[in-house]
Amino acid sequence: MSRTSVHVRSADAADAPILRELWSDILRRGTAAEQEADLVGIIDDCNASGDRCLAVAEVDGRVAGAVLLEATTLTPLNLEPTLIAVSPHVLPEFRRRGVGTALMDAATRFAEAQGIATVATAATASSRDANRFMARLSLTPQATFRAASTTAVRAKLSARRAVSRGRGSRQIDKVLAARRLGREHVAS
Length: 188
Ligand SMILES: CC(C)(COP(=O)(O)OP(=O)(O)OC[C@H]1O[C@@H](n2cnc3c(N)ncnc32)[C@H](O)[C@@H]1OP(=O)(O)O)[C@@H](O)C(=O)NCCC(=O)NCCS
Fold this sequence. Notes:
Blueprint: E1 6-10, H1 16-22, H2 32-48, E2 52-59, E3 62-73, E4 81-90, H3 99-113, E5 118-121, H4 128-136, H5 150-187
Parallel strand pairs: 4-5
Antiparallel strand pairs: 1-2, 2-3, 3-4
Helix pairs in contact: 1-2
């Protein structure tokens, strides 16, 4: 197995265009300029904070992949300190050369430096490669992250309420009919 030399460093604002290409699927929708502005803001925040770092992996001086590292808690309710490796991503032409491993190594070093005992990440359920890669690093599935547009959820909730209202009124109809029958029975 040939070894590729991977260098991991902190991102700076000049990386925003290539990072936009790398994360084009996961950034919020918008123009290229808007997405780049989001990234510049994130990079500035990271460089001003001891709890976050945007790590960039380079191969032969070219950006090959990146990950956002955030020292936080496992969830807002479970206050176990956790290092979240957000969207480790390697450009397709650099995959299977140790770049992803170098990014997760950087995540683990960041956790160790802060005395954080848990490392977590999220992998797309449909990405077999990513799930196998994370499983081999001992990260096991903990939850399924689900999302939908607010309007879609509202429409489903409204439909559900209409059905249960219908069921409720059918129930009342049944009760009234039973009482009516009971009265007729007593009268006859
Ligand atoms: C998951 C991902 C980050 C892995 O990145 P990568 O750079 O390919 O990772 P590595 O090269 O370090 O390791 C990948 C595999 O190649 C193998 N490998 C590493 N160096 C190698 C080499 N020189 N020759 C052959 N194989 C090699 C590793 O052993 C590993 O095998 P495994 O998956 O069976 O454990 C990358 O596939 C990716 O960006 N996927 C799309 C985005 C995504 O789904 N991200 C994950 C979110 S959690």
